[in-house]
Amino acid sequence: MSKSKISPSPCLIRKNRKMKPTIIILTVFIFLLVLLPTAIPHDYSDALRKSILFFEGQRSGRLPKQQRMKWRGNSALNDGKNLKTDLVGGYYDAGDNVKFHFPMAFTATMLAWSSIDFGSYMSQNDFGHSIVTLKWATDYLLKTVSQLPNRIFVQVGEAQADHNCWERPEDMDTPRTAFALDAPDPASDLAGEIAAALAAASIAFKRSNPKYSKILLDKAINTFQYADLHRGSYTDNPKVNRAVCPFYCSVNGYKDELLWAAAWLRRATGNDYYLKYLVNNRQAFGAAFSYYEFGWDNKVGGVNVLVAKEVFEKNVTALREYKETAEKMMCSYFPETVGPHMTYTPGGLLYKPGSSQLQNTAALSFLLLTYADYLSKSSQQLHCGNLNFKPDSLRRIVKRQVDYVLGDNPMKLSYMVGYSDKYPRQIHHRGASILSVNVHPQAFGCLKGWEIFASPNPDPNILVGAVVGGPDVDDKFIGKRNNASDTEPTTYINAPFVGLFAYFKSNPNFS
């Protein structure tokens, strides 16, 4: 971890009685501009609505009558046919037309967590749409584990063939091969993440749809059993390795997903079996290490924060080490603390090396805001050696990230499509870049699509609410379709932002 690179605080202005009023006013104005980089007001309600709407543009399968993203149409209606099963539905993960179940499950987990912890900040209408968005994912995930304990479905679509073509999902002609693993093939990471998603969703649906909630929880328990019984990484298996890698290889291994699933099952059931599992496997499964990471591949940071909630609320001493590790992560956001630190760009964006930068910003900010909520509800502060931080200190960092994404950044650009007047107009997304089937019913074809890809014209379809990959370490952004790292949206970038926008929608004047 490198030391924080956040912009330094301005020098203190010395008192000078001889300064003219105009100079004083100008000096104070400049001081405030530097000190308060997030002073521009934002419409968080609008951002929340659009962050949820985005998922309708990522839907696969037969679209419902209530579909609001009207330029999309039905797609991939025969998915699963080669394995004689129904795998229609779910979400395309990004700007392509493949359904990768591992990141889709993480997306569902984060949508559920957003609803559970931040749903109370949403309007009834927004919450309703968020639950519909979650159910579109969980309905599909139930299909992926419908044949357990014998088989788990990994992916639909051949990534290499799909990436060789630039065509709309509505008329794609690339192979829709479904891939699966059969017992006793290991799939702990995939099954663990699906179990976490279903368990988290069971909490989200508990009041509004108790019958569905029970179905989700029962399947989560069974899926975790498969994950724990057949230990190993799913991408190590040659049956699916070429299909999944290098796109969504489980680089971090499978042990963090086992803890992640156990943590969500503990929260969903209260069963002491999962508490013992978390206690007994914490050290061996690495929850004490790599705790600065959180995303679709590495769940360690999320595990520690999620489990810490039980220590805050119930003072479960057996889990105290999880809270202590979570606290170390929280302290790393503050450059004045001792020890390793999170890295910031000169413009103040939380940054980790890799592509699609905002996936890290979104996930890490979510943990920070969640932990701040735990601190507030228990009337505690964050202790970092000799320094103490109130919950609002954590929230200010999160607000800086949210406002940066919405336009308070060196590029003066909203990284959410359709928010404000200035946002990326050429995103790395097949559906957005090609004329809708409603306008041009005939298929363009694979090669013709590449002509559209190379076009300098803006996208004909606005993928409203999509948060793109974002800027580089120097806050620079190349907003071109061929720069996928900067301009490709993903479901797992948007999912944490649903919770973040919900909080600031109810606290718009927080500073």
TrEMBL record:
A Gene Ontology molecular function term of the record: cellulase activity
Ranges of residues in domain Glycoside hydrolase family: 44-500
EC number(s) on file: 3.2.1.4
InterPro entries membership: 6-hairpin_glycosidase_sf, 6hp_glycosidase-like_sf, Glyco_hydro_9, Glyco_hydro_9_His_AS
PROSITE patterns: GH9_2
Catalytic activity: Endohydrolysis of (1->4)-beta-D-glucosidic linkages in cellulose, lichenin and cereal beta-D-glucans
Keyword tags: Carbohydrate metabolism, Cell wall biogenesis/degradation, Cellulose degradation, Glycosidase, Hydrolase, Polysaccharide degradation
Keyword set includes Hydrolase: yes
Family: Belongs to the glycosyl hydrolase 9 (cellulase E) family.
Active-site positions on this chain: 428
Protein name per the record: Endoglucanase
One GO process term, biological-process aspect: cellulose catabolic process
